[in-house]
Each structure stands twice: as structure tokens, then as C-alpha cells.
UniProtKB/TrEMBL annotation:
This is Fructosamine kinase. Signal peptide: none annotated. GO terms for molecular function: kinase activity. It comes from Granulosicoccus antarcticus IMCC3135. Keywords: Kinase, Transferase. It holds the Pfam family Fructosamin_kin. InterPro entries: Fructo-/Ketosamine-3-kinase (IPR016477), Kinase-like_dom_sf (IPR011009). It comes from the Bacteria. Belongs to the fructosamine kinase family. Coiled coil: none annotated. The keyword Transferase applies. The keyword Ion transport does not apply.
Length: 291
């Protein structure tokens, strides 16, 4: 059913469907345009990236498509073009990116581009449409304060989910709840929100055949720019040249090194919920720095 809808929206006939790995949530394919209507934006022989899910969170793929468009508005980062999207049936069709290898300038160019993205105007923390993001459906109620957003829209919902799924010890959940009430101690009350990709680990960055970085799979929202960089450091995969170039373009506030684990806490809890005990120790270690 959804494959037929993809073809109708793209005005093409697709073939050579090839399943792709690498994701822990959606099912993804590469498909080739076999025939195309004259009014289609695609041509025979072109590849298309398509992903779907049997039971995604509400409005999941249109939310992701919006996030890609929101990042693209700034025109400083490469993101795949949205070719077609639907929540019923659920799928997202994107421009195919031919992957290659990094070149000498790849990391520094990404760092500068991220700095420009984070400098672009953003009026709010969270999302104005307040749609949830990610496989856990985290809320994104909009607001003017980082401490309010990170506490009420990230740490407390994650503490609740972790408790419901017995992913963390009760004492650890209580520590998270305590920290959520004390975030004003770690954030500037006048901090301005930045446009964030929101889930920027190495698997959500592609490098094309020209050595250019492309960002995929966003959980876009307005947030603290230190969160983005802390997420990038958490699992590795980004060169130090990237961080140096970012710092030269848009220096971080004093004391940012002491806040890295604070920003990494949310993704660590997510991983403890989704993947189990390997992440409970790192979660507790990060918490113990602040509570």
C-alpha cells in the first residue's frame, strides 16, 4: 500500500528495491526510478531514499520532513531534499546522497556550518507546533527558558519512561528529578535558543563523494547549542577540527566543559531506556557530577 502511494506522489515507477541497514527505528530502502511522468521531478535511473515504519509515533514522518526544511532555511548546511512524505501510510522519500570519504576540509567546514546554524534566529526553545520527536516521542512544548525546557521536556519525561520500563534504579530516577528542579544553577537565564538538529551523532551525518557533510534524521527543535556539541562528543565520529572551527566561529560561554555531561544526560537516559544496562553506569556517572 505505502509503496504504491510513494510512486503516486513521486509520479514514477520504482524498482530495484534494496533494503538498507543502520537504523534502529525505521525500515529503509534505496529504490531506482524505472519510469517517470513528464511532470515528475525525477528521471529514470535516479535513486531515491525511502523509509517507513509499521507503527510510528503520531505525525512522525511529517515532523521529520519539517525539521529538514527548518534546517535548510538557514542555507548553511546540506540536508537531503524531501521528495514526498505521508503519515498515512507512513513514509518519507528523500534525495539520494551518494556517500564518499572525508577530505582535509570536511570537519572544519562542518564546524563552521554548525556555528552559522546556531547563530541563525530562533525565537523559542522546543517547537512552535509542539510536536514530539524521536522514537520515544519526547515532548517539545515551546518556551523562553532553557532550564524549563530541558527539565520539563527532556529530563522529567525521560525519568518517567525509565521508571515505567525499569530501565534505571529508583534512586537514579529520583536524582534526575532533583536535577530537573535545579537547572537554573547551570544555565544563563538570558540564554538565546539555537536551531538544533537535535540528534547529531555520527550516524546522522553522511559524507558525500565530494567530502561534503549532509545531516539526516533530525529531531529538530530550539535548544541550547551546547547540547548539540555535547551529543556529537558523546559517541565520537567527529574530528577535533570540527570543534575547533566551531569555537573560532562562535565561541562557547565560559565553563562549557563543565556542562558537557549535563547535556549528554538526556541521550544517555534515552540509550539506557532503549538499549539497557550498558548505559546505566554512564548515566549515573553523568548525574553524580551535578547531584
Amino acid at each position: 500500500m505505502w509503496r504504491q502511494t510513494v510512486e503516486e506522489k513521486l509520479k514514477v515507477t520504482l524498482g530495484q528495491w534494496q533494503p538498507l541497514g543502520g537504523g534502529d527505528f525505521a525500515q529503509s530502502w534505496r529504490a531506482v526510478v524505472m519510469e517517470a511522468e513528464l511532470s515528475s521531478a525525477l528521471k529514470p535511473g535516479e535513486s531515491v531514499f525511502i523509509k517507513t515504519h509499521a507503527n510510528p509515533p503520531p505525525r512522525h514522518f511529517t515532523t521529520e520532513a519539517w525539521g529538514l526544511a527548518w534546517l535548510q532555511e538557514v542555507k548553511v548546511l546540506a540536508v537531503p531534499a524531501v521528495l514526498a512524505v505521508s503519515d498515512e501510510p507512513p513514509f518519507l522519500a528523500l534525495q539520494w546522497i551518494e556517500e564518499g570519504s572525508r577530505i582535509a576540509s570536511t570537519e572544519a567546514e562542518l564546524g563552521r556550518a554548525l556555528a552559522c546554524l546556531h547563530q541563525a534566529p530562533c525565537s523559542h526553545f522546543g517547537r512552535l507546533d509542539e510536536r514530539s520527536t524521536g522514537s520515544l516521542g519526547l515532548p517539545n512544548a515551546s518556551g523562553k527558558s532553557w532550564s524549563q525546557f530541558y527539565g520539563s521536556q527532556r529530563l522529567l519525561p525521560l525519568a518517567r519512561i525509565a521508571a515505567e520500563r525499569n530501565a534505571l534504579r529508583r534512586s537514579t530516577v529520583q536524582q534526575i528529578e532533583t536535577l530537573a528542579s535545579r537547572l537554573d544553577e547551570y544555565g544563563d537565564a538570558e540564554l538565546q535558543p539555537s536551531r538544533l538538529h537535535g540528534d547529531l551523532w555520527a550516524g546522522n551525518r553522511l559524507v558525500d563523494s565530494d567530502g561534503c557533510s549532509w545531516l539526516i534524521d533530525p529531531a529538530s527543535h530550539g535548544g541550547h547549542r551546547e547540547f548539540e556539541l555535547a551529543m556529537m562528543r558523546l559517541f565520537g565520529g567527529f574530528g577535533e577540527e570540527c570543534f575547533h572551527a566551531y569555537q573560532e566561529q562562535f565561541p562557547l560561554a565560559d565553563g562549557w566543559q563543565e556542562r558537557v555531561s549535563l547535556h549528554q544526560l538526556a541521550p544517555l537516559i534515552v540509550h539506557a531506556i532503549k538499549f539497557g544496562q550498558a548505559y546505566t553506569g554512564p548515566t549515573e556517572e553523568a548525574l553524580n557530577r551535578y547531584v
